[in-house]
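Weekend entry, working from home. Most of the wet-lab plans are on hold until the incubator is repaired, so I used the time to fold the two sequences that have been sitting in the queue since the last round of cloning. Logging both here for the record. First:
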Amino acid sequence: MAIVKTDVPTTSKICSDTIDQLVAAYPSCRSQVLTQTAFGRPVKTLVVGSGERNVLFTAAHHANEWITTPLLLKFGEELAQAIETGGKIWGVEGRTIGNLVTVHMVPMVDPDGVDLVTGAIQPGSEEYAIAGNLASYYPQIPFPDGWKANLMGVDLNLQYPAGWLTAREIKFAAGYDRPGPRDYVGRAPLNQRESRALAEYTRQVRPRLVLAYHTQGKVIYWQFRDYRIPGARELAQEFARVSGYQMEDTPYESSFAGYKDWFIQDFRRPGFTIEAGSGENPLPIEQFNTIYRDNLGILVTAALGLPGGA
């Protein structure tokens, strides 16, 4: 009986409870709380395996991209199950992955925002009123479906010290100059609990590569500025081959202050933003099985790396 629910929207409580259940069910799984949000929700890790190679996969940086959370949770469950039973995942022995790799995951970077979009935060509540007040300054953005930020109105994927001032200039010029549903960079880099905790965890883990899962477009972004990272292009090409997604250059207006940008800049290692699925955010849960099928090869390939490569 599968633990991970893939037929209902994944709220912060479902995510947290699912991680706890996976840790209880599988000896290869463990977890820690990286931080509590400003509204008291935990940002948790899910870690599977015990190998020397560390990788770090993240999801739901943006509230209305919550469908990426069950993507990582299901991968974690299937990997743990393959490790315990001697089975395979995407044709690879689970125990091979578990012995070679430690897969660190942060399945829900933005639990407050996710709860707003999934309906766990109900109209009439104080939190809903706070978000509604911020959203009122941006009436062109559907509420709450258009919400990407945390409940402080800060876009958590515009919080990293990698061209942050440039991102600020771009977003302010586009009218996102105050807390709201999307594209507000905050008052300073890493001034939000969630982004600061993820940066600290990344420094602690020092992963060989990172994946940052977003939606949508079936696109792989793998560059930041003119940094040339050994193995990054080859990995992106393999990700594209196994998924059917396209490698693309990041649009200029979205090219700065993101998590993978900061990782590439500070670690000089491969970092990727994967835009999963297609359509208009939030993607419907009915698209989950297709998203998982398309991305399983990326996840396994990223875990193991390429022979002789990253």
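Second, folded right after the first finished:
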Amino acid sequence: MGNIYTVTFNPAIDYVVRMETFTAGSVNRTTEELVQCGGKGVNVSTVLRNLGVPNTALGFVAGFTGRAVEEGLARMGVQTDFIHLDKGLTRINVKIKAGKETEINGRGPDIGPGDLEALFEKLDRLEKGDFLVLAGSIPAALPVDIYERILGRLAGRGVLAVVDAEGDLLRKVLPYRPFLIKPNNFELGAIFNRFLESEDDIRDCAAELQKLGARNVLVSMAGDGAILLDETGAYHRIAAPDGKVKNSVGAGDSMVAGFLAGWLQSADYATALRTGAAAGSATAFSDGLATLEDVQKLLQNMKEEE
């Protein structure tokens, strides 16, 4: 098995607070607080580690909050190889849960050309069979084609790319034949500037992305489960397991991690889909990210639909 690397350009400390009500312009008091390491690639790394899959988290950190991210991931057993920026602070994101979810996301530090080159040098060490996970939006200070540049640099080396992004960020990497892409149904519709009314619509758009270069297209549909169009041409669908949704943050990242864990364990796409759906739901049903125990419990009752 190759090594797995994730890239998070803008990691975060997620400060999650629960309160009975939230009123703007007033003093609000919490009923519960939780501090987590955040960022989409960081989430993928954490869930992979929870599922027993070693990996390395790459990206950029700065200041005392950056040190807190590194230390927090180390305590969870996640290996990191972050680039340390000289200025700024790794961001703090505030997640307010008071009936509805409200998020206040920090900006994060600036990443300069020299810092990017340091990341490219790390990526140049990847070998055939290694996986590289690129997840999330791009900080404003970075070139908008950064994902495209990364995959272009790795082209022809046998590195298996996994991309979880929106719009042009996703569309422009397709010529590099990523191993997996994971839009949700709304992101999928936005790529084609259309509202997807049915599962057939979703399947048709997924097939278009496959024609454009994606090897496997995994589409998450929240409470409606997920579909997978795999590189053999097979179509898979799985229903979401029953459970009470507590937390939407990190569910998509957990699905990506679960899919990779399932694939590495079995080399079977149906198994990868089941494990991905179970991991995504396990996160959605809990206050934190999916654990192995929670995923295993959900897997016992999940079956792929014909």
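Plan for Monday: verify the second prediction. The radius of gyration is 19 Å.
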